[in-house]
Design brief:
By secondary structure, the protein is mainly beta. The strands form 2 sheets. Strands 1-2-3-12-4-5-10-11 form an 8-stranded antiparallel β-sheet, with no helix packed on it. The longest helix is centred in the first third of the chain and has 4 residues.
Length: 156
């Protein structure tokens, strides 16, 4: 953990290895990423932010995902493509490949429509075929308090 306090600047930045292939090709498995835990104290969550979130299925775990729909927006996924308020997002980062054997659970090409509740966000991984994300969570959105940090890949 890196803490800076010179000139009144405080930040909580951590480095960790990407644990899986869910964000490929943007972040490769085992690539070191920078997690800024103080970013959202100063900035609001934006569409396309890559973030660390509390894993909704395992309380002591975190996940890295991309924010795709904001509070009040209607999101739908059709054949792995994301539509927000009826318009397809430009998603050049999306991968439809998998390095692991797929289970039927992870083959969720279509989802929604869903209107994102106030103060909540809809998140997906870049590797749509090989990811546990909003399409599969018991509750498909996360509250802003569950978004813990902004992620930057070493290649960004």
């Amino acid at each position: 953990m890196l803490l800076l306090s010179a000139c009144g600047l405080q930040t909580d930045v951590r480095l960790r290895k990407m644990p899986d292939s869910s964000m490929e090709p943007t972040i490769r498995k085992q690539e070191v990423v920078r997690e800024d835990f103080s970013h959202f104290a100063k900035q609001s969550v934006k569409r396309l932010d890559i973030v660390v979130v509390k894993d909704p299925g395992r309380t002591q775990q975190t996940l890295i995902k991309r924010v795709l729909a904001l509070p009040g927006e209607t999101v739908r996924v059709v054949d792995y493509r994301t539509y927000v308020n009826g318009k397809a997002l430009d998603e050049p980062y999306v991968s439809l490949s998998s390095s692991a054997p797929l289970t039927p659970l992870l083959r969720v090409a279509d989802f929604g429509p869903l209107t994102v509740p106030a103060g909540e966000y809809f998140l997906l991984a870049d590797n749509r075929i090989d990811s546990y994300d909003s399409r599969l969570w018991k509750k498909s959105t996360l509250k802003s308090q569950e978004i813990l940090a902004l992620v930057q890949a070493s290649s960004n």
